[in-house]
Write a structure and sequence with these properties.
By secondary structure, the chain is an alpha/beta fold. The protein has a single domain, classed as Rossmann fold. Helix content is 38%, strand content 26%. It has ten helices and ten strands. A six-stranded mixed sheet has the order 6-7-8-3-9-10, sandwiched between helices. Strands 2-1-4-5 form a four-stranded antiparallel sheet, covered by helices on one side. A hairpin with a 2-residue loop joins β9 and β10. α3 runs parallel beside α6. The model has no long low-confidence stretch (mean pLDDT 95). It binds adenosine-5'-triphosphate and magnesium ion. Magnesium ion (MG) binds next to α1.
Length: 237
């Protein structure tokens, strides 16, 4: 049984159907990439999975349970966490306080301590900067904090919305390495949304391409990398 299974997921914003009958699944321990151009519905899909927007149709199952009726807080408690597009940190709060906002659903102090240590181990720069205002960090460092904040919820499924957006190539490589480590060493399941399709497909086990709110291609990451349609549409080949 997949860890996450999304069936016929449809989201409307007023008259606009942002995603339409989207179907996909994530197996335990898997990295799944969602690729697609601007406005394809990638962020909407993630927001619907974590319950930040209501689906107008469809069923979401997580850990064998139908979570369609659960709100965002309950979904986070169940182990789904989102690092949103554009980072959305509190710029005038310290890095540490930003991280702690991610732990609002966690009551165990020892879990909070363990997660902080894991994040600092993953991103030593975040540890060094923990008392600095988040707004004073570089874009790449802020992205590390945003991923850290999502990890503070102690998720079983981590969803990352465009972690490479607007970040220098060297830092993108560091973040990619962190994503691989979280998956390989902690067994964390990850949904990775990227406009950098090459990066996402390279990191992922399975992948889905969205266009105008619909899934138009799916397969192993390596298969999609070699697919002429994907190469032409998303890889600039
Ligand atoms: N809050 C909203 N209200 C109305 N329309 C929205 C809202 N959020 C997104 N949309 C629209 O829904 C569609 C899908 O947007 P979404 O943000 O999910 O795409 P995306 O694939 O994440 O794009 P990008 O790569 O630019 O981040 C777009 O047409 C967008 O304009
Ligand atoms: Mg988006």
């Amino acid at each position: 049984m997949p860890m996450l299974e999304v069936s016929d997921l449809t989201v409307r914003y007023g008259a606009l159907e942002a995603i339409r009958k989207v179907n996909f699944s994530v197996e335990e321990g898997e990295i799944v990439a969602l690729i697609g151009s601007n406005g394809a519905g990638k962020s909407t899909t993630l927001r619907a999975i974590v319950g930040l927007v209501n689906a107008t149709q469809g069923v979401t199952r997580f850990g064998g349970r139908d979570i369609t009726a659960l709100n965002a807080a309950a979904r986070v408690r169940n182990g789904i966490s989102l690092s949103p597009e554009g980072r959305r940190l509190f710029g005038r709060m310290s890095v540490l306080d930003n991280l702690l906002t991610g732990a609002y659903s966690v009551s165990s102090r020892s879990t909070i301590k363990t997660m902080l240590d894991e994040i600092y181990d993953l991103f030593p720069r975040v540890r060094e900067r923990r008392h600095q205002l988040a707004g004073s960090l570089s874009g790449g460092e802020q992205q590390m904090v945003a991923i850290g904040r999502a990890l503070m919820a102690h998720p079983r499924l981590l969803m990352l919305d465009e972690p490479s957006l607007g970040i220098a190539p060297k830092v993108v490589a560091e973040i990619a390495q962190a994503i691989e480590r979280l998956n390989k060493e902690k067994g964390l399941s990850i949904i990775l949304v990227e406009q950098n399709a090459r990066l996402a497909l390279r990191l992922s086990h399975n992948a889905y391409a969205l266009e105008h709110g619909e899934v138009v291609r799916s397969g192993r990451g390596a298969e999609l990398l070699a697919d002429p349609f994907v190469q032409k549409a998303y890889l600039g080949v």
